[in-house]
Amino acid sequence: VKETKELGPLLQRVAATIKAILNPDQVYICLWSHAGWRPGHLHFVLQPSWNHLQQRYQRPGPFMQVDMMASANMYPPQKKVEAFARKAKEVIQSANIDAVK
Fold this sequence. Notes:
about 100 residues, HIT-like_sf, HIT domain-containing protein
């Protein structure tokens, strides 16, 4: 029960962190829970999205995620991922997401 109460605020905080660092038009929050067509454990995917991606992908949200994951060249360089992770950790721990803007 405690985890359930904490999940909503955590997702909001991480989405706000992504928005503060990357300034996307929106942040998708998607739940993936099936592996091999059987419910197992949960994955929450928080993904920044920009309006210009409409030109590249036909459908938004989880459809775009699947298309991006299927395309090997859509992964950002590892150094950018690591830099984002460091900044996100700093922002989440600081309790001041607005300071990033």
